[in-house]
Amino acid sequence: MDMLPSPATPMSPLSARIPSDLYLWLSQLPLDGAQTNSDKLRVLLGQLKRQHEGALDYGATHAWLRDLLTRQREALVQVEGQSSQHSEVLALLMEHLTAAMALLLSHPLENETNVARLEGALVRRALAMGEALLRQAITPEAAAFDTGVVRQHIAPVLALAGVLANLDPGISQPSAQGV
C-alpha cells in the first residue's frame, strides 16, 4: 500500500487550479490512509513518481494493481451478495491477472537473463491460471455466474494438450518440482 510521508519528511506547498469534476473525483476517491485531498495528492504523486522511475517492486506493484481493481472487486461482492452466488472463476482470474501484470510491470528487462526470468515467471503464472480453470471444468458446472463458461471455451485447449501429449509423452508427466 502507498503510505503517507512521515511527519519528519519536509513538505513544500503546491497550489494548482483544477477542473471541478477532477476536484469532486479526488474528494470522493477512496485511498487507504489518505483522508484529505492533500493526503490523496501525496499518495497519487508518490505512485506516479515510482511508476515513472520504474521503482515499483513486485509487492508494491501488486498492491497498486489491487487498488486499481478495488471498485470491480467491491462491485463483484455486491452482485454476489444480492444473488447469493460466488464466482470462483472471476476471483481466480482477477488474482492471476493481477499477479501477471505485477510481474510484467515490476521486472526489469535490462538483459537476456532478466528477460528469460520474466518469461519463465509469466509462463508459470499463465499455466497456473490455466490449471485453476481446468479444475473448474472437472465438474459439469463451474463455480461461476455462467456455470458453463469454462467448458464452453476449453475444447481447443484440450485438443492442443492431446496433440502435445502424443508428440512428447514425457511432457504430460508432472516434473519433480511440482506445479
Task: Name a few traits of the molecule.
179 residues; mainly alpha; flat; plasmid
Number of strands: 0
Order of helices and strands: HHHHHHH
Largest sheet: none
Q: Structural class, judged by helices and strands?
A: mainly alpha
Beta-strand proportion? under 5%
Number of distinct helices: 7
Shape: flat
| DSSP helix fraction | 55-70%
Rounded radius of gyration (Å): 22 Å
How would you summarize this macromolecular structure in one to three sentences?
This protein has 179 residues and is an all-alpha fold. It contains seven helices and no strands.
Protein architecture, described:
This protein has helices spanning 20-28, 37-53, 58-68, 70-83, 88-106, 112-137, 149-167. It is mainly alpha-helical. It has a domain at 56-169. 64% of the residues lie in helices and 0% in strands. The two termini are 29 Å apart. Keywords: Plasmid.
